[in-house]
Design brief:
2 copies of one chain form a homodimer. Chain A has 511 residues and is an all-alpha fold. Chain A is 63% helix and 3% strand. Chain A has a 3-stranded mixed beta sheet with strand order 1-3-2, with helices on both faces. In chain A, helix 5 packs antiparallel against helix 6.
Chain lengths: 511, 511
């Protein structure tokens, strides 16, 4: 059995190496590749993906999994080997269900759609990409169909990103969240808007980059195990626990852009860097779900990175970096500016509070598209109606509306959005558990020390990699099932105080 | 047959994609990877190499080659398909002869030796790495042994880099070259040394980089199909005909460093970029041999890049870029500085003329090591004696002696050096043929136009990729077999004039 397990690990290690190589090719494509390199790169990436899929779904892996299953049952649930056998079985089952020919067909359609969408977005011309999107909806339904036995057609697509979650579990969770958010957003909308002028005073790029480096290091990002570059859409990527890189975007006219991208991506990176070295290079390395990954980026970006204790330490240093701009700006003014709430059109630029409304609109619409209760041609109207209803704003064109996000146009429809809000919900619950265990976390933060929190997260979340299902990991880390309440309490307390709308009905502690 | 050929191309295309991916991983490792990423990267690169080797040597490819062989015979020799079948057969035969277990053993030994050598070189302590080098010699002999039927044990290792060449063909060629070089070097050594001060006046990096970009563009390097970065050891790497990148090294105290690295690597890059797009992504893309590749880098670096016509155009622009340093330096002074000849210790810093002596020393020593007529422990003494004898200089320590080059310590002993001098020899013969076809090349050069020469090289060398054996390619391009004479004539004429030692016995035209 030890030999078979070693053989399985070797084969899965090759799959991981191919995936890591594909990730390096993607990183290079975004940060270094010359324009004309794209077509060869597309071919090379496709070859790596195909070989990785072939290797994972090989009969050899299937046989080893069958033979090792009884042995796996005898091992303690949370040991690395038992976890590997569980996760490998799940990955193998899912990967073998989808025919390679379908993957090739989908992939070709996605590349084409992406190109058409880029031009359609530029021209704010949804009809140009409508036929492609129709086909994407159809392909998304077919993809879901390879996983029979679901309650809702979107469930198998959600399972891909957020294992254990379904439309049936997400709907009540989102409904509860919406019920809490709506009155909060409404009351804040009636308040005087925060003064954000201090973020737009003109900040030279090089100094912003230097301050981001300082921030990242203090938070715990180890540059000997990572690297930061510039890209139009910030992201984090891992080639192993000791090589986790990220990108940010810097705008001279918006200080918040680089600062919070750096903290957000650092959150993702700390998760990847914190996976146990024992799991490095194997199937269990990496984050367990979109939601859990997003919980770590948002925990650092929002709960920590937009908090008073954090800036009590960092703001004087930020002033030191930009004396001309910030010497006369009080910490409180800055704090209010980075937490300004205002309903907006673009998800990626939304504030912490209204961000979830953007996500829920997409989630609802993609459920309807896949159910067949909404047609692609009616999508822009449905989109605009929901923005008017939920946020009180109407896109001037489809560019700021239904065409804004790449997800439906570069991937599939279904499964890719819920993770953003799940992440916010998880983040508050996880942060709350950390605070309960270490009440000194905020005090440490005021002195620029993030290691108490980081240590707790490493111990309870990061090191486990993909060993446990997200729901199980949340329970192990926080002692409670996933709940919206910690997040609502966090939002109500923070924004109640900020906007002096403190008499909100904050839900009581989770039962 | 068309189907089988298509299937063969598909499989070989996957091999090329894996090799290109491995190349991207290497490029990333040198230009971007954080220090701690090395160990995962080593594993990922090894996996790609292993899978590429597995794929190339698969029985499926062997069967297709067998089945397609008769068909290949019916095709015109120089069509793409016939060439592919020839080259694929050769690659398959060579690759299947070496067992994977040996490759793994060699590769592990090489990584270890490289580490030990790095420290040994720093400490100028050859004995520290002697045992490792002994084992490398042994492994190199074993590697050669997988290709029985050779006349000299180094032949199979030379064949890997310079197909068609053997010790028996190289020895007379090198002997002839040495006979021509020795009196030239001797006479120049007796002359007043050239004044090189103008290259060491302090040149800011950014301006050097900008001038290199200008140079590269004028020569014909297309930045939309490439990229230049900085690295300690300049190199060129290709991921496809439309993505060929290079690195240079910039020294503020040595203007020649960046200028000639940029031209040299551009020469390599133009070859890769000039391969016919029809061959892109397949086994025939890329240069045909080390010697032929080096011929292109050295043709551009030395024959063009250190010539009067070239600098007639570029020197006034170089003065414009560095007015403070060069305004009072005459073109002739600069020309003599970049062509200064002085016997030296370090191959990579040697001038055009003595460079070949460095190469021939290594070639002779590795033949002796593999024959068994020289022991590893006696190597440093043999090295120093040869430097004293051939160049009249003695290394103060092994750091400037036997430990200087990575080749023996990161690869194998045998086959990696002859290409440097072959390249010089080929370059002169090829350049001569281009001049004969287009006598206006030098006139164009004086006006900053490199396209006549580049066009000829593209037509006669570059576009063919690996289709023809080097010897065959030389004959096709120049109408004559490989000969030392054009190179000797070029050197004698150029340096005879430069050092006023013009009455040398220049060999007559090749018969």
């Amino acid at each position: 059995m030890r030999e078979k397990l070693a053989e399985l690990k070797r084969l899965l290690g090759e799959v991981s190496d191919l995936n890591a190589a594909a990730a390096v090719l993607y990183w290079d494509q975004v940060t270094q590749m010359p324009p004309q390199g794209a077509s060869a790169r597309g071919r090379q990436s496709a070859t790596l993906s195909r070989l990785s899929h072939q290797l994972l779904t090989s009969p050899q892996v299937g046989r080893l999994l069958d033979e090792l299953a009884p042995y796996g049952e005898t091992l303690p649930h949370d040991c690395d080997e038992a976890s590997l056998l569980r996760v490998a079985r799940r990955d193998w089952d899912r990967a073998t269900k989808v025919p390679s020919s379908f993957i090739a067909e989908l992939s070709a359609h996605q590349s084409e759609t992406y190109e058409v969408w880029s031009r359609a977005k530029e021209a704010a011309d949804f009809p140009r990409v409508a036929e492609h999107l129709k086909r994407t909806v159809e392909l998304s339904r077919r993809l879901a169909g390879f996983f029979p036995g679901f309650d809702h057609i979107v469930d198998p697509l959600i399972e891909e990103h957020d294992p254990g979650m379904t439309v049936a579990t997400l709907r009540p969770l989102f409904a509860e969240l919406r019920m809490g958010l709506a009155p909060l957003v409404e009351r804040i909308a009636a308040c005087d808007p925060a003064d954000e002028a201090c973020l737009h005073l003109g900040y030279p790029r090089a100094e912003q980059a230097a301050f981001c480096t300082f921030l990242q290091k203090r938070i715990g990002y180890d540059f000997s195990r990572g690297r930061r570059e510039i890209s139009p859409h910030p992201f984090t990527i891992s080639f192993g626990v000791n090589d986790v890189r990220l990108t940010v975007r810097i705008r001279e006219d918006d200080l918040g852009e680089a600062l919070f991208a750096a903290i957000h991506e650092t959150g993702h990176a700390l998760y990847e860097m914190g996976v146990s070295p024992d799991l490095d290079g194997g199937l269990l390395a990496g984050g367990v779900s979109s939601g859990m990954h997003e919980s770590q980026s948002r925990l650092w970006e929002n709960i920590v990175g937009r908090s008073r204790p954090f800036w009590a330490f960092f703001y004087p240093r930020l002033q030191g970096a930009f004396p001309g701009q910030l010497d006369d700006v009080a910490l409180e003014t800055f704090y209010r500016a980075i937490n300004a709430v205002r309903p907006s059109l673009i998800r990626t630029e939304a504030d912490e509070l209204t961000y979830n409304l953007h996500v829920m609109i997409r989630f609802d619409l993609e459920c309807q598209l896949l159910e067949g209760s909404l047609s692609v041609l009616d999508l822009p109207d449905a989109w605009n109606a929901r923005y008017e209803q939920d946020l009180g704003v109407t896109p001037p064109s489809d560019r700021e509306g239904v065409l804004q996000d790449v997800h439906w146009f570069g991937g599939i429809v279904g499964g890719a959005f819920q993770g953003y809000t799940l992440g916010n919900v998880m983040a508050a619950q996880i942060h709350g558990a950390a605070l309960a265990a270490h009440p000194n976390i905020e005090h440490d933060m005021e002195h620029g020390r993030c290691d108490t929190l980081l240590g707790w997260l490493g111990e309870h979340i990061y090191r486990h990699g993909r060993k446990f299902q997200p729901e199980e990991l949340i329970r192990r880390a926080t002692g409670a099932p996933l709940s919206v309440r910690p997040y609502m309490r966090y939002l109500a307390t923070k924004y109640g105080e900020l906007y002096n709308v403190g008499d909100l009905a904050v839900p009581g502690p989770s039962s």
